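Q&A FORM
Asked by: J.P.
Topic: structure of VanZ like protein

PROVIDED:
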Amino acid sequence: MLLAALWPFAILFPSPFLFGIGDWPAALWERADGSMQDALLAWLPAAWRVSEWPERVDGWLSDSAWEAVLGGLMLFAALAIASLAMRAGAPRVRLLIAFVTATLALKAAATFMQSSTGLLVVWATPGARLGIELGFAAALVALRVPATWRALLAAAALLAGVALVNLLPVNPFFDFTLSGWRQGRYVHFNSIARWLAWIWPYAALIWLGQRVEHAWLPAALRR
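REPLIED BY: S.T.
REPLY: Here is the structure written out as tokens.
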């Protein structure tokens, strides 16, 4: 329940992709010295061509399509986690609708208060809107899946989403969006939101892994 309650706040800080949180590995890589980057890449087999991965992956789909894919994956994972915290007899569909509505309203309010553009939904690009639709539809379908399998699907979606967040190149227009974000106005709030955005996906993966392990492993092996 705590993870689900924190997710709306984790997505408040601007990111290159809607719901694209968990990018601290990419942030650390960008801040690393060039010689350190070269040294780390030298440890990997040259045949892998790791340095070319971002451009190669980015070329598979358009920017809008990647927004839809990444947004759908991350939203599905968050909604699946929220549904796992609900009682069996709870009105889960209505609760998920309320959860998404409240999350988007909170993000719109935060954007309005802190963005110098004064726009409520500057993040609601066509790709992001499609991602919301896909992620929500997938979450509704997943309600019919047993809880353990739903947790496993959520973990897989979250892993794929985090990998894409850290692999895909940042849109050049994102720097313009970030420059209009009045971070100093609510400095403590922004710091907390930024840390939540970095930590939440990995905390969620640990929780999902423990849930799946508890369901599948015999009690004797868990001791």
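FOLLOW-UP: The mean pLDDT is 84.
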